[in-house]
Amino acid sequence: MFQKVLIANRGEIALRVLRACKELGIQTVVVHSTADSDAMHVRLADESVCIGPPPSRESYLNIHQIVAACEITGADAVHPGYGFLSENAKFADILAAHNITFIGPSGDHIRIMGDKIEAKRTAKRLGIPVVPGSDGAISDEKEAKRVAAGIGYPVIIKASAGGGGRGMKVARSEADLEVALQTARSEAGAAFGDDAVYIEKFLEKPRHIELQVFGDGAGRGVHFGERDCSLQRRHQKVWEEANSPALNSEERARIGGICAKAIADLGYSGAGTIEFLYENGEFYFIEMNTRLQVEHPVTEAITGIDLVHEQIRVASGGGLSVRQEDIKFNGHAIECRINAEDPRTFTPSPGTITHFHTPGGLGVRVDSGVYSGYRIPPYYDSLIGKLIVHGRNRVECMMRLRRALDEFVVDGIKTTLPLFRDLVGNPDIANGDYDIHWLEKYLAEDD
Ligand code: ADP
User: Measured in angstroms, how far is the CA atom of residue 48 from the centroid of ligand 1?
Assistant: First the structure.
């Protein structure tokens, strides 16, 4: 087991990882920017190192400073959290070269999955169902037309280097194709410095369903069931559930089995998430994230397993603590992402939190890095906390969520709490009857 883990992140996820380390008796080091000197993770860690000014690229993305902080403090492993350097293959390679363990998969696996064309090719080879589309990058308009005619309109053009929903354009007919191709290409070039794009069938009413998987790096793979993250705004997840209201246990076992086997065959190490669109009973792979996800607590709630403990165990060579048959799904869980944003316009609302009161009671978990009197710096993303509620079934979970939302008080800034108070009373949400476009339509109608 590791002696000392450095946490290369901030906010609620830094605290989340810190808690897991403390439980395992591991010393913690956190790094922080000058804007985060008062952050909760800095206060609670055994040691902290200031690594630079507020902008992320000079602090949380500064590989040299983070490696130096490891050397100074004698940390033997780094947990990257999510975002920042968590899917940076070069970072994983550099740590390995310094004999520091990256708590995550190998640089090579990060690289494969970070290139969406390569990821899709790999998924297909491993027997994972993929969205029909081009075999690789599209070279010109002629090829785009041929591929699109083959799979049928509408189609979506996506950036191979994509992320955060950028560089995606839908073409409903051949007449739209030229403009969509050019726009996607130039957006991808500007955002990622790589203008390679590919084409996929555009699914009209899919759900976003993702499988939590784990590999032990020695040829064993397991799955922890799925999460339904269909409630999205601008391709960003807002509300997540486990299990999905749309799947039955046979479908879960079937797709879970395919994913666990793929992970084993790949020789993958650590936590991963295989993301699918799901429509008319079929799964279509879209991408794999090679890290812990924001929404991992809903999986923890229904399985009772601490996924960060598992990440640390696997990375330290201790293997997984569970076999597939030990992983049981118990009840239902929902997570709401609470952002410091206007609940209607979603404009960021940084500032000082004058009062912060979190709900409690049976089945309620709040993961947050903020407190009364905390000043939210304007430099980072607007997530201030996550409310995770568990019940014996979805009905009980929704009742508990409504109650927990009522208790939650955040004064001094605007938050997305009022949006969740509306959603929890909505009949479609109560019935679990929504797809990836539901929330955008709901917000548009409300204006
Ligand atoms: P990113 O890495 O930019 O988040 P993804 O490939 O994960 O991109 O897609 C993000 C979201 O875009 C999906 O959750 C879904 O809402 C939408 N999307 C992606 N591919 C398709 C498709 N083929 N058909 C319909 N919607 C899609």
Answer: 38
